[in-house]
Structure formats: C-alpha cells, structure tokens
C-alpha cells in the first residue's frame, strides 16, 4: 500500500467513526493523527511538496562584490599579507579605515580559500602512521629507545639504552652512558649484530624520532650492517609501544632505586641485575607467561604444550569443576607493530595489544 493509499484509508476510517457517533478529534487521537493533519489531507494538500520560496534571500546590508574584492586586495597587500584578521582590523582602525568586522574578513578569506598559512613559514604537514610490521620468529623485528636514570646531581641523568626483540620480548642489548649519542647507539648495535649473528636484511629496527635514533652516525651504521630502519611519528609515543611498556615494567620494579645512583658503575650494575630478572625470571603476560629467554631460544612451545596437557588432564579428572574450556595456553605465533585498523586480528593478538598498554 502506497503512502497515498494509506492516507485515504485513514481519512475513510475517521469518516466512518464520526458517522457512528465518535468525535473527530478522538478518532484522530486513536489513529495517531492531529485534526489539523486530517483537514489538510481532506483539502487535498500535498505535504510532500516543498512550498518554500525558491529564491535566495540576500540581506540588504550584504557586501557588494566590489567591496569583497577591495577587502581581499587590502589584506593581501604588502602591509597586511603576513597578518591575520585579528591584527589587520585594529591596524586599519588606527588609520581611520573600516572595511568590515574581523569575522567578515575571515568569511571572505574562507570563500577565497586563503584561510591558511599566509606567511612564508612552513605550514604543518600531516604525518602518516608508520608501516605495519610483524614478526614470526626472533631476530626479525627490534625496538629500541633511551630512558633517564637519576643521578646525584639534580638536572643531570644517566641514559639507559635498551634494544628489545619484539617477538620474544627479550632485551638483546643494553648499556648505560652519561650522555645521549648516536655514536654510542651505533656501537651498541654493532655488538648486538655480532652476538646474535644477524645477517644483512634480516632485522628491522624501530625507534622514535629522537636525535640519537636518526643521527647520521646511526643511520650510516644501519646501512653498513644491513639493518632496515623504521621510525615513529614525531611526538607519538604510541608508535613505539613495546619499548615504552618495557620502561614502565622496569621502573615499577620494587628494586628500582629510590635514591639517585651514585655513579655510572652503580647504574650499570643495577641495570644488569634488572635485565637478568626480566629476561630469565619474568613471566611475560603477552607471550603466554613464559620468560623472554625461553621464547627467544624456542623453548616456550614445549612448555606451553606441557601446560595445556596438564590442564586438559585436570579437566578429565574433575569435569564438573570446569564450566568452560581450559585456560588458553596456545603459543602466540605472530606479533605485530603498528597494525593497520582494517587488518583482521585474531583474539590472541588483540589481547596482546591490550596487555601491552598496561605492562610488559
């Protein structure tokens, strides 16, 4: 039934009700209509037609085209070309000139597509998200960053350099220096490449946009070693979540020094103990609660299978104690860095990303 047929049916229903003795307004209320709507329908008015006037209303006080052109000529003159309307209006007032309000000049500039950087300064540029990366085995994708450690002198710090294997979460290299330097970072990377036996083109190294990360010495070292660089967007810490999460885990340890570190040797000794705990004792939540060292050496799969068999056996012995499936001890086979939103992710990967935001 079309809308016109429905309308006619409602009109006939109201007419039938009124002929039977009902009041028209009550009959309309039962049908969900107003009396005025029924009257318009009975008069044959087409409510679907827009009866508003088609002419464009022009305010009598609107600026003429000549006035708009004159305002654009003035604001683009040598005197005002580098000034916003908020500066142009008072300067014109000091000269005894009124062309229009500040908002009027803004609207004219917007129509002329000049409401952008009007000076010779470099405009802001959009930054695209780093390329989505993933790792399916150790020594494929690294992340590194630098964090501060307190010293006995206020305002001065020691700098902890940490290189992390994203797949296994193992700290593959670290050192504490008294300053930030691209040279120190490149020497540490050379040591890691030698110890891990990395081949050219094997590993991607991700970092933020700090000066040591993109310094000429570091970039030259990456090229010589065949390590492919990957950089975060400026001032976007979420692009390097694994290193940020690692620093939070280390600094929230009970062993974190409450007092400043006495000297560089004390700082290095403390970091050495912390790295040993993290690599060999810490059960990492995002990789199935195995240690990074176990996952880095490939021992985690057998350990996870053993846990899975243990839980399945416990369920068989006492099935009434298990309302759902046993705990998920499946191995995480792929770890992603800065995945695309449109890229499908399985449940395990989503859990990893959520856990990484909390702690390593």
How would you summarize the topology of this molecule?
Layout: H1 3-19, H2 24-31, H3 35-42, H4 65-75, H5 85-94, H6 102-111, E1 133-135, E2 141-150, E3 157-165, E4 171-177, H7 182-196, E5 204-207, H8 211-214, H9 216-225, E6 228-231, H10 241-251, H11 264-280, H12 292-296, H13 300-317, E7 335-337, H14 347-358
Parallel strand pairs: 2-5, 5-6
Antiparallel strand pairs: 1-7, 2-3, 3-4
Helix pairs in contact: 1-2, 5-6, 7-9
Structure write-up:
Residues 344-360 have low confidence and may be disordered. Helix 7 runs parallel beside helix 9. The protein has helices spanning 3-19, 24-31, 35-42, 65-75, 85-94, 102-111, 182-196, 211-214, 216-225, 241-251, 264-280, 292-296, 300-317, 347-358; strands spanning 133-135, 141-150, 157-165, 171-177, 204-207, 228-231, 335-337. With 360 residues, the protein is α/β, with parallel strands linked by helices. It is built from 14 helices and seven strands. Helix content is 43%, strand content 11%. It has a five-stranded mixed sheet with strand order 4-3-2-5-6, with helices on both faces. The protein has three domains: 3-42, no CATH class; 65-111; 129-360, Ribonuclease H-like superfamily/Ribonuclease H (Nucleotidyltransferase, domain 5), CATH 3.30.420.10.
């Amino acid at each position: 039934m079309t809308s016109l047929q429905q309308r006619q049916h409602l009109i006939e229903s109201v007419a039938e009700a009124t002929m039977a003795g009902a009041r028209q307004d009550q009959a309309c209320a039962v049908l969900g209509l107003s009396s005025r709507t029924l009257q318009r329908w009975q008069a044959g008015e087409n409510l679907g037609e827009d009866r508003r006037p088609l002419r464009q209303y022009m305010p009598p006080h609107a600026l003429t085209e000549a006035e708009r052109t004159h305002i654009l000529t003035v604001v683009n003159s040598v005197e005002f070309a580098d000034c916003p309307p908020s500066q142009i209006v008072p300067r014109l007032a000091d000269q005894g000139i009124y062309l229009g309000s500040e908002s009027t000049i803004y609207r004219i500039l917007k129509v002329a597509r000049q409401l952008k950087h009007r000076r010779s300064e470099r405009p802001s540029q959009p930054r695209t998200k780093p390329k989505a990366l993933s790792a399916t085995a150790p020594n494929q994708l690294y992340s590194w960053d630098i964090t501060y450690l307190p010293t006995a002198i206020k305002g001065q710090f020691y700098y902890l350099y940490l290189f992390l294997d994203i797949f296994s979460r193992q700290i593959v290299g670290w050192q504490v220096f008294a300053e930030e330097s691209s040279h120190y970072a490149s020497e540490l990377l050379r040591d890691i490449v030698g110890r891990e036996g990395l081949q050219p083109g094997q590993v991607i190294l991700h970092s933020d946009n700090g000066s040591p990360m993109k310094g000429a010495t570091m970039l030259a070292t990456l090229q010589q070693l065949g390590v492919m660089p990957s950089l975060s967007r400026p001032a976007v810490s979420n692009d390097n979540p694994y290193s940020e999460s690692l620093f939070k885990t280390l600094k929230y340890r009970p062993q974190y020094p409450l007092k400043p570190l006495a000297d560089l040797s004390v700082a290095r000794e403390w970091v050495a103990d912390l790295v040993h705990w993290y690599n060999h004792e810490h059960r990492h939540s995002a990789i199935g609660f195995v240690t990074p060292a176990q996952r880095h050496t490939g021992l985690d799969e057998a350990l996870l299978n053993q846990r899975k068999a243990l839980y399945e056996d416990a369920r068989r012995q006492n099935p009434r104690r298990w309302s759902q499936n046993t705990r998920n001890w499946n191995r995480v086979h792929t770890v992603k860095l800065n995945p695309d939103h449109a890229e499908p992710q399985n449940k395990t990967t989503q859990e990893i990303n959520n856990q990484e935001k909390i702690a390593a």
